[in-house]
Amino acid sequence: MTQFEKVFRNSALHPKPVGLVLQYGTAGFRTNAKELDHIMFRMGLLAVLRSKKTKATIGVMVTASHNPEEDNGVKLVDPMGEMVTPSWEEYSMQLANAEQDVLLTALKDVIEKEAISMDQDANIFIGKDTRPSSEKLSQAVSDGVMSLGGHVHDYGVVTTPQLHFMVRCQNTQGCYGSPTMEGYYRKLSQAFVQLTKHVRQSTFHQWVHRLTSSKHLLVDGANGVGALRLRDMERFLQNQLQISLFNDCREGKLNFQCGADYVKVQQKPPQGVEMSVGERCCSFDGDADRIVYYYKDSDGCFHLQDGDKIATLIGTFLKDMLTQAGLDLQVAVVQTAYANGSSTRYLEDVLKVSWCTTGVKHLHHAAQEFDIGVYFEANGHGTVLFSNAAVHKIEKLAQDSSIKNEKKRTAAQLLHSTINVINQAVGDAISDMLLVEGVLAVQGLSVQQWDAIYSDLPNRQRKIKVADRRVITTTDAERRVVTPPGLQEAVDMLVKKYPQSRAFVRPSGTEDIIRVYAEADTQENTDALAQEVCLAVYRLAGGVGEEPKPLH
Ligand code: G16
């Protein structure tokens, strides 16, 4: 039996519902798990082609991240651990949406267009999250890979960033680390221990005092894979961090009233976390590629430290260290339209700030333009990228034993540890958490002092259901609506009514909804603006169900 005959036969075991068309979204295919079996099989096929084309290992992660438990999805990982290159998103849709009888034609078309040698070996790493549907769906990916003669290494239940890490390690022949779970835990925790070793004596005592007074870092694992894998990692951290883990999968539903997305959008603490005044808390999302921090003050008020605050903390730390080390490297922060206006104003005074469209794949690409690119979406998805030249300069300086200036030597070593603690393949809640904890410790900052760096403008995110979200198209990094006609004009008019205000509307690429973002001088004005924009979307873009109502 030829390879193609095998694909044809096995694809019948994962049939595509006739007429079903799915779009590749912000981070791959994502919808109700019941609609995804054929997609998984076909993404297995595509991963084999991508592996043959790049002559490298490719990753396939079965997850729907922040979405509800009944959804699922698939993320494809390119050789350096980044999201699959956008030019292949087209191919993924071509395969995903080909009816059963033309699947082979669609497959052969990709092979021909990309001039793929089918004699080349293919190696695929597979991972999955904790959703009940993930087991069967990851088996469908394996079936697809093996039908086209690819080799599978199944890592089982891992966080999305762990799978990205494994792919990068494998394709750098171990230079980035060892492609094993132990390799991941060891690399990150050793770098974290190194980072915190540099805490000055006086600062260290303050930090220990804070740790013992607030006791621990509280972590909300979103009842997802991040909780399981963080548990595994704890023993590698040599007691340098004491973690109290909540929403750890023992009871409670994935992402339900917990997790980074819930905390960010609702602007309140997750269920199931017992927070005391002033304690540092953080939440992961369902596949642990996002993180947000928060705490409660003595008046019981909730304070959120989202991706913007994390980017500010890390970006300014890196800039300080570069200055102390005397290294001439440019640090830039990449943001999206969701970045709070206050964060942008603050950052523009101290660093270069660059803008791009929502989606890690865009931010990652934009951050690669700089010596050191810090990218974070406000929702807590982000990381830091160091160019090869920057890594080389920092490593050389950190290893230079002739440096007499202690401040300079320490700064170089801190930069070096930062390179190793951060997962450069993709945003990683565990790795980001270790870097934030390390930076706070080194700088002797409490969570309140970090929060006080700047004050967020009040903001609100809403979701609106419309008949077809594709009716809304956007431009200018998704900050302005192009269609339907009249909607942008309506938003512009509404924004003029409130001081310091801004609002935008865009279709989600992960959920079947339209997202509305608003910010203004007061929470009352922000909520009023968000409500009016929701109504404009509902009326001009084909809202379904009841008209949106004010939140309170
Ligand atoms: C994915 C993307 C993120 C994006 C988020 C929401 O995250 O990787 O870059 O911000 O979806 O996208 P949208 O607003 O288009 O729904 P995750 O963590 O859900 O995989």
UniProtKB/TrEMBL annotation:
Taxonomy, superkingdom: Eukaryota
Keyword Acetylation (UniProt): yes
Protein family per UniProt: Belongs to the phosphohexose mutase family.
Catalytic site positions: S65 (phosphoserine intermediate)
Cofactor: Mg(2+)
Binding site for Mg(2+): S65, D285, D287, D289
Enzyme class: isomerase
Name this protein carries in UniProt: Phosphoacetylglucosamine mutase
Pathways per UniProt: Nucleotide-sugar biosynthesis; UDP-N-acetyl-alpha-D-glucosamine biosynthesis; N-acetyl-alpha-D-glucosamine 1-phosphate from alpha-D-glucosamine 6-phosphate (route I): step 2/2
Annotated catalysed reactions: N-acetyl-alpha-D-glucosamine 1-phosphate = N-acetyl-D-glucosamine 6-phosphate
PROSITE patterns to which the protein is assigned, alphabetical: PGM_PMM
Cofactor comment: Binds 1 Mg(2+) ion per subunit.
Organism: Scleropages formosus (Asian bonytongue)
Domain Alpha-D-phosphohexomutase C-terminal: 486-534
Annotated positions binding substrate: E377, A378, N379, R506, P507, S508, G509, T510, R515
Entry EC no(s): 5.4.2.3
Function as written in the Swiss-Prot or TrEMBL entry: Catalyzes the conversion of GlcNAc-6-P into GlcNAc-1-P during the synthesis of uridine diphosphate/UDP-GlcNAc, a sugar nucleotide critical to multiple glycosylation pathways including protein N- and O-glycosylation.
Domain Alpha-D-phosphohexomutase alpha/beta/alpha: residue ranges: 52-90, 111-171
The entry's keywords: Acetylation, Carbohydrate metabolism, Isomerase, Magnesium, Metal-binding, Phosphoprotein
GO annotation terms (biological process): carbohydrate metabolic process; hemopoiesis; UDP-N-acetylglucosamine biosynthetic process
